[in-house]
Write the structure tokens for this entry.
Amino acid sequence: MNSTIRLGDRGEAVKVWQALIGISPADGIFGPKTEAATKAWQTKAGLTADGVVGPKTWQAAERPAARPSQPAATGAARFIAAQKTPASAAEIYEALRAVWCERLGSEPKRESLLVLLAQWALETGRGRSMWNWNMGNQKGRPNGSDGRSWTFFACNEILSASTANKSVEAAKPRADGKGQDAAITKSLANGLQEVWFYPNNPGCCFRAYDTLKDGAYDYFDLLRKRFASAWPAVEAGAPVEFSRRLKQAGYYTADEGHYTRGLVAIFSEYQRDLK
């Protein structure tokens, strides 16, 4: 970014800057809230805190040390109480766009962002059931052994009968005292079973973040690195291929056809309606 922006400005450059410093929603309006956050960010970065985002501020923001390119050190990881963090499609779109620009140094194709946005919507009930800014329902590890903070909330998985039975056999009392923390609730076709996991079963441990920006960084990096085989489909803006490759890589356990239909339907809706 080369545009100098300040109080009173509007537009795409403002949206990118707001996403970078964690302003939500990133509405593209450089108002008093954005100015105050900018000054605080500049102070922390050792810059003149004038609230004007010029070349030096952009350059500082684009340096690797200015953004969380790696997860927090294990010692900094902590348990965060489960809390819903709803967001709109427009907010997530702008957050992903900002991360893409930073990580790859280029402007993404709209269709590429819509593939990611559709998956976020599918995984989080269109943002209404997003917990602790976890955009893709990435699983976590109790005690933060992967370097990320963690939380617990109830979830279901579709597992083979043998895996489901082992999970139930190893179940312990639920954190709320309402029975066991794993239970088979439905037998499906092809020997599969639906299992619900409840706190504090490791099966319902998820990564947790303090801000939308932190969640967006980790979601983006997870897909590009751990699920790199699916990333070409993101770049191509191809939701069907993206779903197929995610299934092959073990991202989700749901029926592939069902997951793909949902992903395509949301992608088409956002492609038509999201401005």
